[in-house]
Fold this sequence. Notes:
Elements: E1 3-10, H1 16-23, H2 27-35, E2 40-48, E3 51-58, H3 61-73, E4 86-89, H4 90-101, H5 113-127, H6 133-152, H7 162-174, E5 181-185, H8 189-198, E6 205-210, H9 213-223, E7 226-229, H10 233-237, E8 242-245, H11 256-264, E9 271-275, E10 292-295, H12 301-310, H13 312-364, H14 371-400, H15 404-412, H16 427-433
Parallel strand pairs: 5-6, 5-8, 6-7, 8-9, 9-10
Antiparallel strand pairs: 1-3, 1-4, 2-3
Amino acid sequence: METILSAHVTHKTVEVGQLELIGAQNIDYLLSSVRKLDGITECLVLRTCNRVEIYTVTKDWEASRKALESFVNGFIPFDTEENLVLFNSGKESIRHLLRVSSGLESMIIGEDQIQSQVKESFDYAERNGYSGPILSLVFRKAISVGKKVRTETLVNKGCVSIGSAAVELAEEKLGTLDGKNVLVVGAGEMATLIAKHLVGKRPDTVFVSNRTYARAVELAWILNGKAVRFDALNEFLAQSDVVLCATSASHMILEKRHIVKAMELRQDKRMLIIDVSFPRNVSLDVKDVSGVELYDIDGLRSVSEANILKRRKEMHNAEHIIFQELELLDRKLDELEAAKIVKELFRKYNRIKDNEVRRAVARANGSQESIDRIMEDFGTALMGKFLAEPVETLKAASREGEDRMFETAKVMFRLKEGADVPGEPNETTAHDAVVTKHGA
């Protein structure tokens, strides 16, 4: 029987630097590598700025668990003092995913971005042939549950994104953004969220710089700010009190030399840099520059803790929805497993039937035997082939004292005590067919 096995590396157990060790890997490399592990039949990787989660379907749980653990530990070395990687299976894996899609496992509780990230991860795995019927059912349910939680609770009300948290952190550190110059590096989804929450904070000037200048112009227009060409980025650092970095680049954009030069022109003014890129785009040694404060995603934890306190009641309501939907999904998975078994039964017994039909037809062609005799032998042979393995299984159960198998057989074959069936074996014949556990 196939089961779900998952591995989780998240903001709850690791810092962003450790998360980058696996999160910075190419998504196709991760998927293709996991798919080749022992026993894995389906896989999907969910990767965001504060989590990398690997969901798999396995036909050999023990072998796959060892292989998956070895694979993940190749990026994040095992630490006997810390559980850096969480492994789940079965219902716990599914429950965790429903919580993730609902925003309950996010650093900023209730964030909306995670739902689209779950969908994008699923779409990518399905489009490239990594997911199958089980992960398809589970992830479609997760996406619908995420929508239901946000519709029926207030868990996502207010400022609930990494972008909003970055702006809150800037206000917390500076007291206010009123009159400050802000530089936003990036113009994608995260940078847009940052921009959305800058509105109403009354900064003096907002600069927007992006590798694609047209995108910078669009975002700057929304903010009534100034678009900055990417190759001129360093010229505007010296004018900026706050730098909010949120790009999808895989390399460092701001290095110590850039900040040193900017600070020389700022005449002892401080600079706050918040890097919410994943992987990080601001070099860590920037924090050694006098007058500079640098924060990355780990620095948002104080905002996250306050967010949890505000949303505790809504989290409880969301958990109730998740519990109900998990039970429904569990039944759907059972139905899926039953459908697979039925399909295999039909395939197996159709092969047996086809073989016996061919034999009966061969006997009938040019034979002097009566059709009644041929059909009688055909029916007897067919019944014998169909029942051979179930009878052998019952015999083995009787020898090993597995009484539950007898009740299962009665239910499965809908047997009723005392019901006579024409042609059925008498008690002596049946007694001989199944050796009882008493050795009779």
